[in-house]
Amino acid sequence: MAASDSGSNASARVTARTDTKNNNDNLFRAPAGSVSDFSDPAAYALASQSEVVPGRRLQLDTAKRLPPSPSGATLQGIGSGSRFLLRADNKRTEPVGQIPGHSPSEPSSALPLTIGGMIESDPAFQQLKLFTFTGHPESASGWTGFNQEPNLPPSPNMMLADAVSPPTSRPGIPATPRSRAGVLQSIPDVPPLPITSHSRPSASRAVSSVPMQRKPSVFFHRPSTASLHSRLPSRSGRNGPAVGNAVEQAGRIHTRRHFVSRRLPLGYSAEKPWLTGQAKAEKFLSWIVFVAFVVGLAIIGVLIWVGTTEIQNYKYCTVLEDNFDEGFLNTTIWTHDVQVGGFGNGEFEWATSSSNNSFVREGKLYIVPTFTADAIGADNMMNGYTVNLTKTGTCTSTADSDCAVRSNSTLGDMIPPIMSARLLTRSFANIRYGKVEVRAKLPQGDWLWPAIWMMPTDSVYGPWPASGEIDICESRGNDHTYPAGGVNVMSSTLHWGPTPALDRYWRTHDTLALKRTTFADGFHTFGLEWSDKYIMTYLDGRLRQAIYHKFATPFWTYGTFPSTYDNGSTVFDPWPSDDLQAPFDQEFYLILNVAVGGTNGWFPDNQGDKPWNNDDRQTAMSSFWNARDKWQKTWGDEDSRGMIVDSVKIYSMC
């Protein structure tokens, strides 16, 4: 803010005496029109107990704010706090000093220069500022104009300077030099004043740095505080020619601010209205939550009770319990299914009765796939070799295609590249309603297909799937990244329908997956419970069910079969009786096997880098064999690529 008349260029030297009566020569001077910073108690004392002489001697006056000038300008402090006013004392008329532009002999009454100043303080920063102003020399009253420099915010540190005044003179009195030591000795002790939070002196202002001790102020009341020296912030620039050398000589003085404790006083007790009592509405809400909790527990209890009553604990009689402790495979219990036709699934294995593919070792049954080339030679697999199981009398199928095969490179026919085993309990253990538990570890290796499943003994309702199929567990030897599910996933399914095309297995199918482990990492129990009320498969106990189907609706109704086939022929119900369990109301036997590959869709096309196509059944087997450099390394040894069975238990309902 700046407001001045055209004649405000008159300059004057502002001096402040520390002792006007004794005419002490210790002076503090600042240019006229500037803002002098009295951030030190010494500077405040210097100003408050002395005269300010801008060509005319002034005395300290604690008068209130100046009246407005004719031009409307008023003297206003910056920030809040105590304000003290310095005004001209016109009682003294003798000329003092030289005012440029006027003759020394000119009477002082012709120079009605009115110069004033304001000391401003703010309790927030402990800094005192004295603002001096120049008035128009042609005006005898009021404040015609003033100049004020912008105020800057204080910085944490402050460079203080003690200006040594040059000699001053009065008419008839010789100039007397002023010393720095004299200034220091003549300044009384006064308390520090607050710093204004609204201003910071510019580089052109004079700065006092005289250190003083705290003493009570004579001008205003201030609460007593701990001793603290207030200092102005340091500046990178000089304060001007008058004080530049002094600033450089003063050095830095580091100060501390007041410590304000935020610790709660002893005995302080905060109000806690929420502890005094609860409103009725709050109590009502608490009761609602409590009642809802009790009702929820009751509902859970009812559901548990209903679930336990639906799954009845039947009395079972043991039909088969084989722990393979005899050291050999008991062929009275287990029979081999020997075929080369792929079992209707286009599988790539030759099911044998060889001890290389099924054997007992260390109390466990092993079903291990091997390479056919190791038995008959690699060249015979592709051309000119014949396998005739009918001639040897080992084939277990009545279909010629399942009992004989001849390799022919021209036609693309080859001997199944893998030998494996399929073991049955058909001749020893068949049950209608009962329980089955097989504890086993599944094989790991690409395109291996282990299975624990059951087929009907007599196929009462017709060929597959009319008479049904129970898959307790099926899996794939691929790793867990295989999209269709690898060795970490087991599938459980019931197959049923009038024809293979109308197999409604997807209505009675589900899976269970292991986390952070696989079925090849350890032994698990794969179980079946089967009664005239329900059929259920589970993993490692009844609490982890795979599928659960309650016999509440006939399968013909449940399957929603069409009335005709695509060719227009009629679709007949293969289960005409009112039996809700049909086709699962007849005897079934257990099958354990490890298959390889297939074209039935168990290994979907375009997933997991599968080397063959399910639609190209003529070349699927050879395509699989020719890509053996990719999948053979995933099979591992017998313990890895084979299914290892620890025990088999079959029960019937007593």
Detailed description of the structure:
GO terms for molecular function: hydrolase activity, hydrolyzing O-glycosyl compounds. Residues 1-33, 62-81, 164-186, 191-210 are annotated as: Disordered. Residues 1-12 have a biased composition (Polar residues). This protein is of the alpha+beta class and 654 residues long. It is 14% helix and 24% strand. The protein has 12 helices and 32 strands. Strands 12, 15, 16, 23, 28, 29, 30 and 32 form an 8-stranded antiparallel beta sheet that branches. Strands 13, 21, 22, 24, 25, 26, 27 and 31 form an 8-stranded antiparallel beta sheet that branches. A 5-stranded antiparallel beta sheet has the order 4-8-7-6-5, covered by helices on one side. The longest helix has 31 residues, at 280-310. The model is unreliable at 1-251 (pLDDT under 50).
Provide key terms for this protein.
about 650 residues; alpha+beta; eight-stranded antiparallel beta sheet; extended; transmembrane helix; Beta-glucanase-like; ConA-like_dom_sf
